[in-house]
């Protein structure tokens, strides 16, 4: 007897039915996992369960380390993930050979600029980690002086960008006191965002870019959701477009929604 596909659309139903989910079932929501529950995504994928947004995208949102492993090709050169003190020693050697200072550290699981740290040198980062003051893993990259910080919102054919700037702090995030002004993206910048989204399995996204010298663009971070402060799109319009994207997935899924 054929079993109808189950469609999960909220977190409460997901956790209540998790043991019963089987190959062919689908999840259409962002899973609100607690730190340390990421292994559930591996289990779900192994069972043949499909997610929208993809499990890859949902894990990306939770891990700057994973983002760096996936998208280092598009990031500021020498951006790397540090998992152990031995990794850090190797990074110290590379950064000192290249004479890279100062540096920026991004802490795992922190958003809104709250986990972005600046150090005068990679040796200072090593001192902090060796003393147990930095928790592994973390991302380290050279500080890109004078770069333009750009936030991009993409929902289907809707694309909006604005520049974030802060005269009092190197953190450009609006949460940290930055200001927003509209920014016109070049075609190659939109193409970069679309490429990142495709590789990460993002049907929609908030992306951060860094533009150096008005010519070279680097990818910084990506998330499925983010604050709308500074964006022209209103909350109601944003949620309407988001719901339409999810509804298209549900319409193509069939099955019983839960």
UniProtKB/TrEMBL annotation:
Pfam families: RimK
Residues in coiled coil: none
InterPro entries to which the protein is assigned, alphabetical: ATP-grasp, ATP-grasp_RimK-type
Residues in ATP-grasp domain copies: 66-251
Signal peptide from the UniProt entry: none
Key words of the record: ATP-binding, Nucleotide-binding
Highest taxon in the source lineage: Bacteria
Name this polypeptide is given: ATP-grasp domain-containing protein
């Amino acid at each position: 007897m054929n079993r109808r596909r189950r469609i999960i659309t909220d977190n409460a139903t997901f956790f209540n039915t998790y043991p019963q989910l089987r190959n062919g079932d689908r999840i259409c929501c962002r899973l609100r996992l607690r730190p340390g529950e990421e292994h559930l995504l591996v289990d779900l994928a192994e069972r043949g369960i499909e997610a929208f947004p993809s499990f890859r995208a949902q894990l990306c949102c939770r891990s700057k380390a994973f983002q760096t492993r996936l998208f280092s090709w598009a990031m500021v050169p020498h951006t790397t993930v540090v998992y152990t003190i031995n990794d850090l020693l190797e990074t110290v050697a590379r950064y000192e050979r290249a004479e890279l200072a100062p540096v920026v550290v991004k802490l795992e699981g922190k958003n809104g600029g709250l986990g972005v740290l600046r150090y005068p040198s990679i040796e200072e980062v090593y001192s902090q980690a060796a003393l147990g003051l930095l928790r592994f893993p973390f991302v380290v990259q050279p500080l890109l002086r004078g770069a333009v910080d750009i936030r991009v919102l993409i929902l289907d054919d809707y694309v909006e960008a604005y520049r974030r700037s802060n005269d009092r702090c190197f953190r450009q995030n609006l949460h940290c006191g930055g200001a927003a002004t509209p920014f016109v993206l070049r075609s190659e910048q939109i193409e970069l965002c679309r490429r990142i989204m495709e590789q990460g399995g993002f049907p929609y996204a908030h992306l951060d870019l860094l533009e150096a010298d008005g010519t070279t663009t680097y990818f910084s971070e990506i998330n499925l959701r983010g604050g709308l402060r500074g964006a022209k799109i209103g909350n109601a319009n944003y949620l309407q477009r988001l719901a339409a994207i999810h509804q298209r997935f549900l319409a193509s899924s069939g099955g019983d929604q839960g």
